[in-house]
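Quick illustration, no need to memorize.
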Amino acid sequence: MNLFDLTGKVAVITGSTKGIGKAIAERLAEHGAKVVISSRKAGPCDEVAAAINARHPGAAVAVPANISSKDDLQRLVDESRKAFGQIDILVCNAASNPYYGPMSGIGDDAFRKIMENNILANHWLIQMVAPEMQARRDGAIIIVSSIAGLRGSPVIGTYGISKAADMQLARNLAIELSPHNIRVNCITPGLVKTDFARALWETPEAEKRSSQNTPLRRLGEVDDIAGAAVFLASRAGAWITGQAIVIDGGETIT
């Protein structure tokens, strides 16, 4: 048995038109999974799905959805089942951070948006897919958190609170769902070179400054995170649940 073989599995990945989410979708498809590409805009979803299908015919479909809309998320689940019959793997990757600064200055709308998009949307999606996983007694749920949820910050504190809550969401759901052979885990990245964090690495000076206190002396690449998703989704990760796996080049150990 190939421990990383995902043939016959269907994965829904939110926020999968760029960055970490796109890399996860591509790597899951490489290992045999059917993948559902989703983000707010239809065009980018179609482009990523087409690129995956060019390499793995029939492996991807595009279903745009706004994670702030419960109706959109239900449609995402319904259309995914219509396309591929079932959902075996859910990757909650999409998130928002509309505010950068001290918590004393954040407005209610921004605070609420962070909490709803980064926690409540994940809760909704998991509620939608868990019953069929329970019926089959098989499933893997992965929430992409952040090391911002492990320590304080003067500028992304609210985002960090939401990501800490995602870790607890995974722990609680693991307790509830593990008796049905459903595993729920978090991936907890450090600073990865994505558009989401571009301001922290887009110049050589900024990248050097951001990576100098990381033991591996480099920032993360999207495949550093995608590999962990393949591991957690596959037979290789079958005895792991309720964990927050930190992938940060050693940043949090310094």
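The mean pLDDT is 95.
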